[in-house]
Amino acid sequence: MRILLVAGLDYENPSAEAVLNGLGKAYRRHGHSVRAVSLCLKGGSSRAGRKMPWGRLLSFNCDWQALLVRELRRADVAHFHSYHGHLEERVVAFWRACRAAKASPLVSFQGYGDPWGVTPDAKERALMGVFLSEARRVTALSRFCARQIENDVPALAKRVAVVPDGYDPEEMKMAKPALRGGAYVACVARHSDAKGIDVLLKAWKLVFPRANVVLRIAGPDRMVPRGRFKRQARRLGIAGGVRFLGQVSRRRVWSEIGGSLFTVHPSRYEAFGMAVLEAMAAGKAVVATRSGGPEELVTHGVSGVLVPPGNAAALAAAILRLVRNPDWRKRLEAGARREAGNYRWDLIAGRYLGLLRSNVRGRQA
Question: Of 10, 15, 122, 255, which has the maximum CB count within 10 A?
Fold first, then answer.
């Protein structure tokens, strides 16, 4: 098949980069031709023809519809990843292009219904329902996310397939050697209310005086104004025990995970939990919240520890227990690596390909 893989985000976004690279390479290993597109915000820099680890990236930041129509007509099937779950400009451009090209795509939701994001009104939810009714198939990363979509779009009840994200074992190998220095706990997350970094910092105030470890947070600061969590760390008196690394490369992400004692994921809301999965794939125990997707990834007491979202005391207790109990940590590491084996991109691509083949048959009919 000739597959058009479209991300409704800039390629520079870590989630879009992980999906386009991991799924694109996996589709090719399955013997299919792939063209990848990322839809930039207008005014962003054009990246058309950018070299990716497995091919060329087409990145549009102007006249999305005309360019997408051309690419859709060249492909047998289209696989679109929506990241925000509302009719933002990029989603509308893709929808219109599909109508013009008479294409019925596979639409996969990387997120939906984030209470800290944009909340669609009744009109927008109705329009989203029309868009999804014109898609041949719809998927979500977790049962949690699927239920949210089905609640908003009743016509899709029991029709949203659950297909999670994956990880690439080969990408893990590009990590640099473990970082030198003292012991640390890693958190990979953008700065946002949904990710719960403020709760983690409150928990760290309870951890820092009682454990000789540092917290390292890797992720872009997109708060307005910026620097909110750095200021919070100073107010809490823990600035000496926290390192804010900003947005880092995929190679550095794997290095940060690999050099850590374990990773912590304090989200209030999580449609899936890519950072949770990647930590498990690297053989790390995880402390995560019962915030949606992580509950389906992590088996409590087997591959990690689950705590209530927003509960700094529970989060601190779980972190301290893992710091102080290396034997238990090792048992969780073995369980994490074992459970993550079910999420390799090659396996996930195989599940998507079953849905995409039905799109091809429908198009031919």
Answer: 255
- Report which of 119, 363, 163 is spatially closest to residue 272, judged by C-alpha positions: 163
Pair 272, 141: CB distance under 8 Å: yes
Q: Write down the CATH number for the domain with range 2-166+344-364.
A: 3.40.50.2000
2-166+344-364 and 169-342 in the same fold? yes
- 64 pLDDT band, cuts 50/70/90, is confident
- Topology adopted by domain 169-342: Rossmann fold (3.40.50)
Domain ranges of the chain: 2-166+344-364, 169-342
